[in-house]
Amino acid sequence: MAGYAPNPDDTKRLQQKVKELGGNAPLLKTAGSFPGQGQEDQELVFDLGGNVAEWAALPDGKGKAEGGSADCPSDPRSSCAAAAEYIGFRVVRGAAKP
């Protein structure tokens, strides 16, 4: 996204710029917009980071948004939380049948 690990000040500036854009989730990109990642002999994996935080189930059964999103880069020093529009699910397809 930024080409480096964003710091808390970067996160605050990003949040302000997003507000200036207006609209509902203006930073989201269509799934598959970014190049796939993987080895030549493997099926490519798309959209591994940056678009939406992932909704994950915790051991106690509660849910929590994990990771960075377009509006809130992942940074353990930041108190930033992704807006609801930037939280989603990762869909993983099983291995292709021969």
Describe, in plain words, how this protein is organized in 3D.
With 98 residues, the chain is largely without helices or strands. The protein has one domain. It contains one helix and three strands; from the N terminus they run αβββ. Strands 2-1-3 form a three-stranded mixed sheet, with no helix packed on it. A hairpin with a 5-residue loop joins strand 1 and strand 2. The N and C termini lie far apart (36 Å). The model has no long low-confidence stretch (mean pLDDT 78).
Give a short synopsis of this structure:
The protein has one domain (1-98). Helices cover 14% and strands 11% of the residues.
C-alpha geometry: globular
Count helical runs: 1
Number of strands: 3
Helix content: 10-25%
Compute the number of structural domains.
1
**How far is it from the N-terminal to the C-terminal residue, by CA?**
36 Å
* Mean pLDDT value: 78
Specify Rg, calculated over alpha carbons. Answer: 15 Å
- Uncertain regions: pLDDT < 50 for 5+ in a row? none
What structural class do you assign from the helix and strand content?
little secondary structure
Q: What is the string of helix and strand elements?
A: HEEE
Q: How would you sum up the major sheet?
A: 3 strands, mixed
Approximate strand percentage: 5-15%
Give me the side-by-side strand order of the main sheet: 2-1-3
Write the layout of secondary structure elements.
Layout: H1 8-21, E1 53-57, E2 63-66, E3 87-88
Parallel strand pairs: 1-3
Antiparallel strand pairs: 1-2
